[in-house]
Amino acid sequence: MQKITLLIHCEDQPNIIASVTNFMASNDGNIVYIDQHVDREQNIFFMRLECEFVSDSFSLEAFKQLFSTTLADKFKLDWKIFSAERKPKMALFISKYDHCLYDILGRYNSGELHLEIPFILSNHLDLKPIADNFNIPFYHVPVTKATKHEAEQEQLKLLEAHNIDFIVLARYMQIVSKTLIDNYPNRIINIHHSFLPAFVGAKPYHSAYKRGVKIIGATSHYITEELDAGPIIQQDVAHVSHTHSIKDLIAKGRDLEKIVLSNAIKLHADRKVMVFNNKTVIFS
User: Fold this and answer.
1) H/E/C letters for each residue in 206-231?
2) From the candidates 12, 39, 78, 228, which is the catalytic residue?
3) What tens digit of pLDDT does each residue of 29-40 get?
């Protein structure tokens, strides 16, 4: 049995759903999931569909070609079809913080994440033992102002050599340049505390503590050239009070970061995220 996931968006117009479902049925497909959304403000239609094919003669490439000529051209669809059998390849970029890394690798090791991790890359050597414990190749690529361009070229070579589909910045404490973003548009996921931009700088939890915040949070998003302004994938918050210390805020914040980042990774790997005009549509 072959299973595919179809993602489409286009200008909203009549008969899209009926045409797509009839197309699947006419090609001996069994739809096991379908969801759609219309952005009324922008008049854009979004759809996510999962379909199974039992025929041994099913060809994904032939199916894509038929879909393109039969439906995509007619409705002017922006579309992608993925095989469920192929796991997307994810590269992990890290620095010295280990909480997100441990959480991701624990979920990966237990089979919770439908993906492959060909390698872990860091600008420091501190967390190499963790990669070694999980038997994942580790690459050390130092980054300084003087070597940033060379480091970026080395990163790109590694990403291309391993056929990486998307990148996760698991508390990678470097600003990613335009070149990397252009090569992986809406495919580089970051995590940060939700105090931004109210509490910027190296010690946001200290600043938040001094202000007596009542809610702390974390946000996972795709990165863009504008810092921390990319399409949001996942967010969560925790309530705090005057009884919590700075240490408590940091601990709660790191718990949120782990959960939010891992959930964002899962959504992306399962092809449940669509991006349009710096905004995401997240399917269940």
Assistant:
1) HHHHHHCCCEEEEEEEECCCCCCCCC
2) 228
3) 999 999 999 999
